[in-house]
Structure formats: C-alpha cells, structure tokens
C-alpha cells in the first residue's frame, strides 16, 4: 500500500538546503542499488524527485514503502531520526523538521503493518476457538 508523506517543510528550505538533502538522498539511492535493495532505492528515488521538483510539493506518495521488509523500514526510520537529531544539533531546524516529517510518514506504514498482523492474529485465534476440534 502506498504511503503519503507530508513535505510541508520543503517549501521553507532554501535551495542550498534542498540541494544538500537531495545529495544525501541520492547517495542513499546509489547505496541501496549497489546492495540490490530495490525497494529502498525506489523509495529514496521518489524522495529525490520530490526534492528536485521546482514547485516544492507538499507531499509525496511512496509506492515502494509497501515493498520494504521490516529490517529495511526500521533502518530507514532510524536513519531519518538520527539525521533529524543531527540537523537540529547543528541549528538546521528546517532540515531537521523535514527528516521528522519523513520519519512520521513512514512510521504510519509500520503502524499499518502492526494493525494487519494484529487482525490476522485475532482471526487465527477466532478460527482456533470456533472451528478447530470435533468438527
């Protein structure tokens, strides 16, 4: 399921900040490609496109988010969190907020997955309670 991520902070970034963040994202695309992590590369490529857009979109749809495995998703969330802290510590508040927004958007994917697994668990419990046994 695609994930929509707010980029409301993007319009407040200077062009040099956007270029800096895009360079970080592009490096992540290349690293993911070299490791054959296609979903990660696609996710970062979509972010790069949004960062490079001349009209500073207020959101981006990340189609590849659903294709991330749990380890990849956790690593990306941790990376966004670490980058937001680093940017904040360096006084780059707009860049820090952008990484916080990105993390919040992808956290919704983790929550969605948790809800799906909980629903499956409830279904299995119901099935075992009601349909197993003497039938």
What composes the largest sheet?
2 strands, antiparallel
* Strand content range: 5-15%
In the sheet with the most strands, the strands line up as: 1-2
Distance between the termini: 37 Å
How many structural domains can be distinguished in the coordinates?
Answer: 1
Order of helices and strands: EHHEHH
How is this structure best described in words?
This protein is mainly alpha-helical and 135 residues long. It has 4 helices and 2 strands. A two-stranded antiparallel sheet has the order 1-2. The radius of gyration is 18 Å and the shape is elongated. The N and C termini lie far apart (37 Å).
Structural topology:
Layout: E1 3-6, H1 15-34, H2 38-52, E2 59-62, H3 70-89, H4 93-130
Antiparallel strand pairs: 1-2
Helix pairs in contact: 1-2, 3-4
Sum this structure up briefly:
The chain is mainly alpha-helical and 135 residues long.
């Amino acid at each position: 399921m695609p994930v929509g991520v707010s980029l409301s902070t993007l319009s407040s970034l200077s062009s040099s900040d956007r270029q800096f963040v895009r360079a970080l994202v592009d490096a992540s695309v290349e690293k993911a490609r070299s490791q054959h992590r296609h979903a990660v590369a696609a996710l970062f490529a979509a972010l790069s496109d949004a960062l490079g857009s001349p009209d500073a979109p207020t959101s981006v749809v990340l189609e590849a988010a659903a294709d991330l495995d749990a380890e990849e998703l956790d690593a990306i969330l941790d990376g966004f969190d670490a980058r937001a802290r680093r940017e904040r510590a360096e006084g780059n508040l707009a860049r820090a907020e952008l990484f916080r927004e990105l993390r919040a958007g992808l956290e919704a994917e983790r929550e969605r997955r948790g809800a799906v697994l909980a629903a499956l668990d409830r279904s299995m419990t119901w099935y075992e309670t009601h349909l197993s046994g003497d039938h």
